[in-house]
Amino acid sequence: MILECIALDWKEYLRCLMMKYKDVIDEVLKIMWPRPLKLFTAGPVACFPEVLEVMKAQMFSHRSVEYSELHRDTVKRLADFLEAKKSIVMLFPSSGTGIMEASIRNAVTLGGKVLVTIIGAFGYRYRDVVEWNGRKAIVLEKKPGEPVLPEELDDALKKNPDVEAVTITYNETSTGVLNPLKELAKVAKEHEKLVFVDAVSAMGAADIKVDEWGLDIVFASSQKAFGVPPGLAMASFSEDIFEKAKKISDRGWYFDLPLYRKYLDKQWSTPSTPPIPQIAGLNVALRIIEKMGGKYAWLKMYEDRAEKIRSGVLDLGLELFAKPGYYSPTITVIKTPPGIKGVDVYNEMRKRGFEIAKGYGPVKEYTFRIGHMGYITDEDIEELFKNLKEVIEYLKSNR
To answer: Could you identify which of 4, 191, 199, 282 might form a hypothetical disulfide with 203, taking C-beta atoms 3.0 to 4.6 angstroms apart as the criterion?
Structure first.
């Protein structure tokens, strides 16, 4: 059957195989996607159709001139988006957590101290990564729903002048809080500390000015605000990071940053096989951003969507979890009414064809979450709130 399709161009070849093996495809789809669901998740999110279309392309060698051009063009566009002219932008076959570990292995000496700011579950993850890699975490923790304030970071650094770096979760998906990154980075730099930013659920929806704000490492994942499937991590690195890495011998191999830079400089590639479809998808997403009017038009689209969802929550008489003024542009965390569990809201909405997100971390029992990322239409949002209203009324009547 495959031979019957082989002489066709690649698009017709795929269509030919789709027809001949449709039953096989349907069997797998029944496992993955047994019925239509509208995604309002924390990630992976619904992907933009244009992204999925380019990811259908047949594979080619990651050591070819064609791949080098794809890699080069994607890195250039991402660097422009991040306003990273001096910093080095690199792509990784990984989740964002891989770069979280790379930040510690490459840029903090063994046994060295790191000031870890925690405003939710992913701050705890950074703390664990620090400690599991033989470094010491000094913790600055806030109550869930609150951001870290600049004066609090300043005080913590005055009390711990020997830390080598500060970690900041830009957007905390477990609580729906956006930290004041620019101001926090300014404080850290006044104390001459490296700044590591977990921007996994922020990059692509919240403003990031890598060079201007003095951010030494900023990392993210493809499956969030850029609306691409998981499997690709992206990050920017200051020159100070590479200088520090040269002095650290036990960096590991898979996430050895100087090795990645060597492949970037010589081949516009990566040491191990990159996720080519996801990189092509990210390239398409970045081009769409440019055609929409550029970075700030794209960010406004996300902020307008976030505001629409927050307004919808308040119209239902529900309470937002995050502190006012620090709301996330990518996810809204909602307190459940008394006597209702967050997981019950999630389950009832799923029955109606909506995949929202369960509560996460320490607040999971009494919250649920609505993600704003990826391919979502205004009609999807209107339908979401129509059903959410009915679900809340149903659960209240059955307490």
So the answer is: 199
Name the pairing type of β-strands 357-358 and 367-371: antiparallel
For the stretch 83-87, contacts whose Cβ atoms lie closer than 8 Å and that sit 24 or more positions apart, written own/partner, are: 83/208, 83/209, 83/210, 83/211, 83/212, 84/210, 84/211, 84/236, 85/211, 86/211, 86/238, 86/239, 87/210, 87/211, 87/215, 87/236, 87/237, 87/238, 87/239
Nearest to 309 by CA among 357, 358, 371, 363: 371
CA–CA separation, 136 and 374 (whole Å): 36
- Report whether 93 contacts 120 (CB < 8 A): no
* Residue matched to tokens 């004041």: 180
In 3D space, the residue among 43, 83, 11, 135 whose CA is nearest the CA of residue 299 turns out to be 83
Distance CA 296, CA 81 (A): 9
Cα–Cα distances (Å) from 172 to 37, 71, 233, in that order, read 25, 29, 18
Residues listed for the chain: 399
pLDDT digits (tens, 9 = 90+) for 250-287: 999 999 999 999 999 999 999 999 999 999 999 999 99
Tokens standing for residue 164: 């080598």
Contact 206, 81 (CB under 8 A): no
Which residue segment(s) compose the domain that 180 sits in? 65-290
Report how far residue 183's alpha carbon sits from residue 187's, in angstroms, rounded to the nearest whole number: 7
Residue 5 lies in a domain: no
pTM exceeding the 0.85 threshold for the entire prediction: yes
Answer yes or no: is 42 within a domain: no
In the block, tokens 């070849």 appear at 13
Does residue 107 sit within a domain?
Answer: yes
Q: What is the mean pLDDT of residues 166-185?
A: 98
CATH number at residue 179: 3.40.640.10
Amino acid in the structure at residue 180:
P
**Residue 190 maps to a domain:** yes
